[in-house]
Amino acid sequence: MEINLDKYKNLRREIDEGWINLHPIQRGGMLPPETRQALLSFGDGYSVCDYCLEGRVDLLKKPPVKDFAEDVAKFLNMDEVRFTSGARHAKAIIFGCLAEPGDTIVIDSLSHYTTYIAAELRGLRIAEVPHTGYPEFRIEPDAYAAKVEEVKRETGKPPAAILLTHVDYKYGNLADAASVARVAKQHDVPFILNAAYTAGVMPVDGKQLGADFLTCSGHKSWAASGPIGILAATEEFADRVFRKSSMRGPWSGRTFPQKEVCLFGCPPVFGTPIATLMASFPHVVERVKRWDEEVEKVRWLVRELERIEGFRQLGERPKRHTLATFESPSFHRVAREHKRRGFFLHEELRKRKIAGIHPGMTKLITLNTYGLGMDQLRKVADAFHEIAKSYNIEIK
Amino acid sequence: MEINLDKYKNLRREIDEGWINLHPIQRGGMLPPETRQALLSFGDGYSVCDYCLEGRVDLLKKPPVKDFAEDVAKFLNMDEVRFTSGARHAKAIIFGCLAEPGDTIVIDSLSHYTTYIAAELRGLRIAEVPHTGYPEFRIEPDAYAAKVEEVKRETGKPPAAILLTHVDYKYGNLADAASVARVAKQHDVPFILNAAYTAGVMPVDGKQLGADFLTCSGHKSWAASGPIGILAATEEFADRVFRKSSMRGPWSGRTFPQKEVCLFGCPPVFGTPIATLMASFPHVVERVKRWDEEVEKVRWLVRELERIEGFRQLGERPKRHTLATFESPSFHRVAREHKRRGFFLHEELRKRKIAGIHPGMTKLITLNTYGLGMDQLRKVADAFHEIAKSYNIEIK
Fold first, then answer.
1. How far is CA A325 from CA A307, A366, A377, in A?
2. Residue A161 contacts by C-beta under 8 Å, 6 or more apart in sequence?
3. CA atoms within 13 A on the CB side of A277
4. Is the pLDDT of residue B16 over 90?
5. ipTM of the shown complex
């Protein structure tokens, strides 16, 4: 067996604290300094299990994971919370418990790909709620109502569940969750709100929004190293998704009455995922209160980037979330002629230590400003303007 | 909403490098110094996704995860490898792909609880292969053969799969995988070897052992922070467990042809789990060559602890793995009278900065010596002897 091991030595991330990182999925998952200490302290495998008496990480008293689960439930205004491998895992668990193979669920057409894959894993049929198309790509509650009616007509019964993506991955549109919840309630269908881009960065009140389930992402939006997700449920549904094992070894008689079946018995979040999620919680509770400032900052950057010829922010206006997509036909024109093709933009930004714009993409540019200071955003705007000018693109 | 956030501030693990840690599940998951550097560098959520063009963490070129997956396959002598949330997740994936609800699988009665739970999640019936009972608790290949025959008689068909726990969590017995593989082959049943306690600490050659699948645990045995598992398969079965999405959004036309359904599209191992698994790989490749030394050390400790009145190592003799369980009736007698009950032992050891003995347990003591030096093991033996003497228990 010949393996070249050198490439695994001194593994380091290129992008460090000296960079400005605009990566759409990374802004909400950056660790504050105090959490980096917890990361190191709990770095070894199974590190939180030192004093486990309970056999489940979410019940640990030391470190205080049990209290933490209760506090997260309060913070989200939901009844019960469990930790999962990510929002993707949380959605797969819910679909697995609410629907049988062949059932139909209604999702929005801006759903994250993991929503589709979670449905596929369970063998579900999906009905997609259309968006309003270019340039705003809105998901409207009325379209949900129409789609549910359509499913009822076609299948003879209501869908097994309705899922709405609270803020989508592509345009950063904030959907009207409370109105979709009312549609769900009218038809007596469980309502799942995928809050991967909202809970942890902006205020989210599950009950006020009418969610039966919230799915959240620690590594996306709770300043956690992860991967870790949060599955929050109302009391009404908690027993179905958090059911305990009734398995009994036919020869040994072994039973596992404390273990929860859909969470692999004890969910694989022990060690740094849960430690960093907990360590960042005080930071998260504080930062969601400053959401309005974050929205002001992204709006400022939108104005600055739209000064570049052809640049247009897509999705709803004005923005209500820090993830933003622009069409950028002037840059795309450069890419067609450039010897580095679409990579030129990524590379120009990289020279300036600005990271996170998808390598190769110039037709649409997606970025996230969450948590960046005005000084950093000014550098970003200047960089884009500079690059534009260097290719004779006009700045208004 | 009133939440006391103070308890989440300055979260630190009590057990640090100054301690000797005997925790049965933790010895193989400790990070070498170079991996702690990678842990910090890749600490932020989604940190390995900076240059993702592939949409799947296992296909990343930078950092070199694609090469890594191929190298891990070589190292295990298997054809294809994917990363999962843990061995528990790997088993759930395999059961989900090989068996239909109601099917029967054959497992050993020393299986980890996550094997039972993974079967329960899929709605499977389990048939347990008995062990030989006190004091050795061996799992014999003949018992597998008999159990498979029994399942055939009772259900009219062979089991959907056979799983063997290579080394079990309780006694640290090393099972005869190659012989169980022959039983599986005879009956044309897929054979899963759960190598959570073996691959990464001792040499494991999947093809030589006849495994169709290996499930491994990064946080348990590959010096990874995790949680991360490895699902290794032969070419014959790879397409079934790693099937790609065929979902198509009926309105949007969205497709996800690169995403693998059972792995949530892209498996939730991005960030520190995969970064630490990769960073530790050179260390792991080297350390498995020194397995014999590890076995010598645990045998030394067995001899020393068996000098204590009543102590007896359970499971096979001599030991072939570093996880060991002792019956310790003399300590249990002390616990019955002690004001701290069974916690006295844990607390006595804690005073001496020795961690990892289950709090409250004195009837059976499970520990793992993997990676500890002789100087440390001497301290462990001395501590046990000292504690014994202080309660008037004889040392032979």
1. 15, 4, 16
2. A94, A95, A98, A99, A105, A106, A189, A190, A191, A192
3. 33
4. no
5. 0.97
- Are A131 and A109 in contact by the 8 Å Cβ rule? The answer is yes
B231 beta partners: B82, B215
Asked if CATH classification 3.90.1150.10 holds for the domain at A6-22+289-390, the reply, yes or no, is yes
- For position A17, what pLDDT does the model report? 87
**pLDDT tens, position by position, B208-225:** 999 999 999 999 999 999
B383 touching A (Cβ < 8 Å): no
Domain residue spans in chain A?
A: 6-22+289-390, 33-279
Burial of A387 (0-12, 13-18, 19+ CB in 10 A): buried
Distance CA(B42)–CA(B272), nearest Å, equals 6
Cβ neighbours of A71 in B, within 8 Å:
3-4
User: Is the peptide bond prior to A267 cis by the omega test (within 30 degrees of 0)?
Assistant: no
Tokens of B202: 């001792």
The answer to whether A264 contacts B89, with C-beta atoms less than 8 Å apart, is: yes
Q: Between A74, A227, A359, which is nearest B53 by CB?
A: A359
Instruction: Give the Cα separation of B120 and A260 in Å (integer).
Output: 10
End-to-end Cα separation, chain B, in angstroms = 61
Most B CBs within 10 A among A5, A11, A58, hence the mutation to make, goes to A11
Where residue A18 falls among pLDDT bands split at 50, 70, 90? Answer: very high
Residue at token pair 């809970």: A199
Q: Are A63 and B11 in contact (CB under 8 A)?
A: yes
pLDDT tens track for B139-158:
999 999 999 999 999 999 99
- Residue A25 CA, chain-centre distance (Å), reads 7
Closest by CA position to A129, among listed A137, A118, A121, A120: A137
Whole-angstrom Cα distance, residue A325 to residue A287?
23
**B-proximal residues of A, 60-119, CB under 8 Å:** 63-64, 67-68, 71, 74-75, 77, 85-86, 88-89, 92, 109, 113-114, 116-119
* A391 token code pair: 């290719």
Q: Supply the Cα-derived Rg of chain B in whole angstroms.
A: 23
Pick among 2.102.10.10, 3.40.640.10, 2.40.50.580, 3.10.110.10: CATH of A33-279: 3.40.640.10
Percent of all residues in chain A with a pLDDT value above 70, rounded to a whole number: 100
Say yes or no to pLDDT of A1 above 90: no
CA torsion A122-A128-A129-A132 (nearest 10°) is 140
A45 with B117: Cβ contact below 8 A: no
User: What SS3 state is found at B202?
Assistant: strand
Closest CA to A224 of A247, A196, A244: A196
State residue A98's pLDDT score: 98
Within 10 angstroms of residue A167's Cβ, the number of other Cβ atoms is 25
Q: Specify the residue for token string 């996170």.
A: A356
End-to-end CA distance of chain A: 61
pLDDT at A153 over 80: yes
More confident residue, A54 or A201: A201
What residues in A contact B274, CB-CB < 8 Å?
none
What is the Cα–Cα distance from A393 to B366, expressed in whole angstroms? 70
Min CA distance, B217 vs chain A (Å)? Answer: 10
What residues 136-195 of chain A have any CB closer than 8 A to a CB of chain B?
none
Stated pTM of the model: 0.98
Helix B113-121, helix B87-98: angle, nearest 10: 40
pLDDT in tens, A360-395: 999 999 999 999 999 999 999 999 999 999 999 999
A186: number of Cβ within 10 Å: 11
